[in-house]
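worker-03 picked up job from queue 'complexes'. Input manifest follows; two sequence lines, order preserved.
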Amino acid sequence: MPPIVAAPSGVTVVKVAGASKRFVIRKEKSLKERLVNMGRSRAHKDDFWALRDIDLEIHSGSTVGLIGPNGSGKSTLLKLIGGILQPTSGTVEHRGRLAALLELGAGFHPDLTGRENVYLNASILGLSRKQTSQFFDQIVAFSGIEPFIDTQVKFYSSGMYVRLAFAVSVHVDPDVLLVDEVLAVGDEPFQRKCMDRIRQFQAEGRTIILVTHGLDAVADLCDRAVVLEHGQIVLDGDPVDALRHLRADFEAMRQDDIDSQRDEAPQEIAQARVTGVSVTDPGGEPVTVIVPGAGLLVNVDVAVDGQVTDPVLGISIDSMLGQVVFGINTRLMGLRLDPMTGRSRHTFRLDDVRLGEGQYTIHAAIARDGGVELNRMLNGASLSVHSKGQSVGFLNVDTEFLSDQPRIRVD
Amino acid sequence: MTTQKDLRNERLAAEPLVPAGPVSGFVGGTADSVRGVWRYRELLDLLVKRELKSRYKDSALGFLWSLIRPLTQLLIYYIAIGQFLGAARSIPDFAIYIFTGLTAWGLFSDIISTGTGSIVANGGLVKKIYLPREVFPLSVIGSAIFNFVIQLVILVIAAILASEPPSLLGWGYVLLGTILLLIYATAAAFLLSAINVYLRDVQYLVEVALMVGFWLSPIVYAWSFVHDALHSDLLNNLYLANPVTLAVLAFQRGLWVAGAGVPQPTDLGLRIVIAVAIGLPILWLCQRVFARLQSNFAQEL
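worker-03 finished. Artifact:
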């Protein structure tokens, strides 16, 4: 489990009170169209509430993830906080120095050299020329593109571009950093560098507000998550709860998709549901707590309405944040199942489950025709693993310590 | 680490909560707008340099191009209007006369034509980050002034070669004229750049209006021609109410030394002072309209 730091009772740095944002979607833009349609202009306008009555207070030192499906208003909320958009009603206030890391390199000019762009971009982000000169070497070192710093940026590869932009952004000294979908940039070593820098920011007590679709990043970095749906806050709290809520929502959305597909071709595709998942010990007794290395039976109950050809059944053991720790299905096991009808129970026998200490959930899914998913039951069963507390992580491996120096006494 | 955190908390606690984005009050926001631009003056400087550097980057002649255009214009007007149509016969030092007008007009039209598109051209930045949006039209003014100064230097050299250097009073007129041009051009750039975000037709409209505007001022013809053609005082005063006309006349009085004996409108200085006095509230009004409209820039781009 990532270390979840309890939010220190800091000062309010961002205060959003009753903020709403309405977009008017006009269908024409030119003078002619507007004049022609003046009398009927109502018909050519659409109101769209991107946000409705948002109340949010963010304390200094916290890292908050704004998450939600596409079009839920999370980016709009971030722009309100950043002052880029003005709320239609309500107020947005902030305290301290605010820097926005919204879409890297927005302030870059292709005809200028890297050096000139560093100064320009830093200035856009609110750094003075003197400060930029002071940080310049660090910025270039961080970006790792020294040889090209005096080349025009239009000759840069997209990776170099983004590296330089990110390097500038992280050297601005903000109290509040707004980040919009920019963490997944560059190659892996650079990404790690970025993550390290964000953790350093956290340690320095800076506030980070993050909009992302990368739920793992939220689980990894945030100590608070706000779930937005249709412009409203539906959940505000622990990232673990928020992610579970959001994943369940995504699952429901996916299920709707499957259902609508089925409506289009009702006679061909059978209804199938995973009706239950249960966990027992090898003897058939239900268990909720195991020790590392125990054996397990995972029973999956399926109800099929019609016939499912070439069915595939799968299970997975997930962490509380929804990451798959272990997953397997019948196709991966090289099995072909006969067509399935009616109600049935299927069992996966897992020998030697070497999970680390923690809480896990088990989910199961059924697919047709060798992989087209029909139904999935999230959080079908839960499982705790109690170990002696000698290790951390998802795996528990028997370990012995050997050394060619005199052994340290065990106390 | 903890101390750094605590220090930051302490410092933040002492700071007041401020509203995100620009202060919206129509009158009260003025000081805030000025403060915002002042805080970003270094950026303004960099934007001007960006504008200048990128304009003729990768071209062999570079900055010479910004001179070739007005010099070509000069040549065309000198030959077509001066020699073929015969305007040069009644206007001494006709080339200098035209170039004086072109220099003044160039400053004005440069600011307005580039300024109108400045917000849309920087849409990427406007949508991504909050900074006082006034810097974009203002940065255009900076690069226009740069071109203007180069032309002015050439003009003065030419004037000295042709007859004699401009007098101190002449320089006073040039300064007044420049101030007048800047006030009205800035006001127009604010207003038009903001409206252009909502209505893209504006930039084409501006092109046409500038074309008309060029002929509304005595740049390639003499003011006396107009004076003789318009027999009513009202029409004459109306013609002279145009601030660009006043500025062009002021430039000519200052730099076109050979034209000292040519008839000039009376009370030019007073007229300019009045135009400046009217222009300042207009500039303020346009900036306030800009400030009002800018709250929706990000969503309209």
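worker-03 released lock.
Chain A touches chain B through 52 residues (CB under 8 Å).
Residues 239-264 of chain A form the longest helix (26 residues).
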